Please model this.
Amino acid sequence: MRDLRSLIEACAKRFDADIVGFAPVSRFSPDDAVFRVFPGTKTVIGLGFRVLRGIYRCVEEGTTYYQYTTMGVENLEETVMPMALINVANLIEEEGFEAIPQRRNQLIMAETDGTNPEVDYSDVRRGVTAENQIDFLHCAVLCGLGEESMIHSLLTKDYGPFIRYCFILTDAELEETPLVTETLCDRCGECIRACPGHALAEDGTMDTWRCAVYYNGANGSKNPFMPPEAYAELENRMDVINGTAEFDAEGAREILNDTYFYPPAKHFYRTSICGRACDRACYIHLEEKGLLGKTFRKRFRSGADWKLDTSQFETGIHETSWVISRKEPSGGTENT
Ligand code: SF4
Ligand code: SF4
Model:
């Protein structure tokens, strides 16, 4: 047999995968969902795709928001990753083995009352049994793509949290990739503090409804598109706008019904107005500590983060006043 593992790696990289990892079945417990999806699984192949730092640059500077959602989420999930999956799977099947691509289904979840901030909450089917859904984060760790952080994101050596991933299950036995043993997450809490909606608890647990509300832009200090009359019907509108409101899932639905300040991307991915502040804060932290393998000439963040003055929503007069501005509007400081 040809060196299938090397052929798979080369093919995956030709179709834009940045990290490729191989997990033997011995790393999975016998009741893992991978065996319900494909009982003949001998290897799980993980493919990691960087989200361009330049795409985060736009939300970091507050200049444009569409690129993260279209290029960083939609294009990767709907075009780039499927292309890599289908080509690697075709290659495996050419060699006489079966290959089962595994893309994340954004619209179903096992939880009965949670949501996925990346899509419209009303499109999500809750309580769908996890019986035949693989655990994506768990598989990524077992494939050696990276480690699980305290907020349950995947941290990779080269790209930190700026990564998306998918898998192929196959009956081909392939040489394993070592598990990641270095620890990047030091539980610093920068990610938790960076969230404009306080959606992450001290222990790293995410309130997915809070996340959805503020991912979609409910914090006026971080939303250049919010009109002055935003949330006029809400009694606690200023608490919502300031990111301090208390609400349950029903309250979150009410806020989300009034949170359409920016058109969603095709394939119904919601536009991220928070710009994944949690992940950017983590990336900045890892870069400052010199832990990222992929380095840049300039640091990602050069000065204080920006904020808009939410008092403008009290008067109803829309002024885009920047209470904290950057030392340099773009490009960051030298990364020495
Ligand atoms: S910012 Fe990153 S390193 Fe720090 S606690 Fe959060 S995930 Fe861990
Ligand atoms: S920063 Fe954005 S993505 Fe991260 S937890 Fe907060 S709302 Fe969610």
Summary: The chain has two domains: 4-170, 190-324.
